[in-house]
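Course assignment 3, question 2. Fill in each field.
Student: A.L.
Task: Predict the tertiary structure for the chain below.
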Amino acid sequence: MNDRPRLGYRFEDLHEGMRFRSPGRTITEADLMSFAGLTGDHSELHTSDVYARASEFGQKVAHGMLGLAYAHGLMWARTGELRETAIAFLGISDWRFVGPIFVGDTIFVNYVLAELRDSRSRPTQAIANFDVEVVKQDGVVVQKGRKALLVSKVPLEAVKASGAAQAPSN
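Answer field:
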């Protein structure tokens, strides 16, 4: 992990091999029901105690996509580490759901900047690829894969505008 994690890394601060760990997020019963309502995925494994108790898991399991969505939010959006550089999320590759997430589990995201390369079409931008593991409180990996992020090599106007909007007026 980073020796001194901080907010607002700029492009020149980034390098392959940088390690990060997100804050944790505990999964609740309300999360499962809200996600089921939002997505329309009311599978009994996620919504029925009776069904889930009789399953191989013995209890309700969080939707895999719920874990993925929360993990994404725990990374750059919640930490602010790439606020100075992040432009757009580009995609996911080789994502695997390797273990269940249960109500009461707390998930964390460990991620490593695996590759940083210049954009072929935009000289002021680059592509950052992160190897990602979603882990539970006991260190067990439950999801993993690679995420790609478009980053800026120059200061973002949106960050300046947002900062100006927050400045106190005299």
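Instructor remarks: The two ends are 41 Å apart (CA to CA). Residues 15 and 116 are 7 Å apart (CA to CA).
Grade: pending
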